[in-house]
C-alpha cells in the first residue's frame, strides 16, 4: 500500500500506467477516490477526478452542513455543488449527509438532484438508494403508537386501564384535540351516546 506501506493492498489505481495500490481503509488518508457506481473505479491522489469549478470559495466560505470554514479552494476535502456553484461542503460532511438522506440526497442550497448526485458519485461519495434515515420506523415509531389506556384519575373499569371495548361504558375515547390522553366513558361520567371528549389539558 503506497499509503501505509503494509502488504495486502488489493485496490489498484484505474490509470493504466499507474502502479499505485492501496487498502480501502487507507484511501481517505491517501486522498484516493473510489467511485461506487458502474465500474467501481478507484484512483490514487495523482489521478483522481477533480471538480471543474469556475469560482473559488472566498476565505469566509463555510460548509453548509457543519458551518466550519472550507478554505479558499476546492480540494480533496472540499466539494462544491456543480449546479449552483455556491454550496460548499467538507467531504466528510457530505458523505454523512448522503448516508442519511439516501434516495432524497440533493444539494442543500439549490436542491438540484440529478447533476449534484452524479458529481458526488464521481468524486467518490457513496450514495445509497434506501429511504432517508429520518423516515425509518425506529425514528417515527413513537409517533405511530396510538394511545390505548384510560388516563382518568380513578379508573373504574373492572378490566383495568388497558381494557377497551368496541362500544358501551368501557369504550375508550381519545381526546378530540390532542389524542394523547384517553378515558373510558364511565370513568369520566359520559353517556353511552357521547362520541367526543376533551382532556383537562385541552
From TrEMBL:
Against Pfam families, the record matches this protein to: PHD_G2E3, zf-HC5HC2H
Every PHD-type domain range:
1-48
- Cell inner membrane as UniProt keyword: no
Coiled-coil spans are: none
Annotated Gene3D superfamilies: Zinc/RING finger domain, C3HC4 (zinc finger) (3.30.40.10)
> What top-level branch of life does the organism fall under?
Eukaryota
- What are the residue boundaries of the RING-type domain, all occurrences included? 63-110
Q: What's in the GO CC field?
A: nucleus
Record-level Gene Ontology MF annotations = zinc ion binding
| Keyword terms, alphabetized | Metal-binding, Zinc, Zinc-finger
What PANTHER family does this protein's entry cite? PHD FINGER PROTEIN, PHD FINGER PROTEIN 7
Name it: PHF7 protein
Q: What is the lineage of its organism?
A: Eukaryota, Metazoa, Chordata, Craniata, Vertebrata
Amino acid at each position: 500500500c503506497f499509503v501505509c506501506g503494509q502488504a495486502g493492498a488489493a485496490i489498484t489505481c484505474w490509470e493504466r500506467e499507474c502502479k499505485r495500490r492501496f487498502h480501502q481503509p487507507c484511501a481517505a488518508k491517501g486522498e484516493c477516490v473510489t467511485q461506487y457506481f458502474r465500474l467501481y473505479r478507484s484512483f490514487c491522489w495523482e489521478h483522481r477526478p477533480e471538480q471543474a469549478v469556475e469560482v473559488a470559495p472566498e476565505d469566509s466560505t463555510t460548509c453548509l452542513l457543519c458551518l466550519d470554514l472550507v478554505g479558499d479552494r476546492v480540494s480533496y476535502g472540499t466539494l462544491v455543488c456543480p449546479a449552483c456553484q455556491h454550496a460548499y461542503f467538507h467531504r466528510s460532511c457530505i458523505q454523512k449527509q448522503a448516508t442519511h438522506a439516501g434516495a432524497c440526497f440533493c444539494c442543500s442550497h439549490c436542491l438540484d438532484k440529478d447533476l449534484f448526485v452524479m458529481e458526488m458519485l464521481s468524486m467518490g461519495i457513496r450514495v445509497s438508494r434506501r429511504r432517508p434515515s429520518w423516515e425509518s420506523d425506529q425514528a417515527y415509531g413513537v409517533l405511530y403508537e396510538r394511545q390505548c389506556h384510560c388516563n382518568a384519575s380513578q379508573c373504574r373499569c373492572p378490566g383495568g386501564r388497558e381494557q377497551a371495548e368496541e362500544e358501551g361504558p368501557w369504550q375508550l375515547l381519545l381526546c378530540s384535540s390532542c389524542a394523547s390522553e384517553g378515558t373510558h366513558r364511565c370513568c369520566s361520567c359520559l353517556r353511552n351516546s357521547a362520541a367526543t371528549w376533551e382532556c383537562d389539558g385541552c
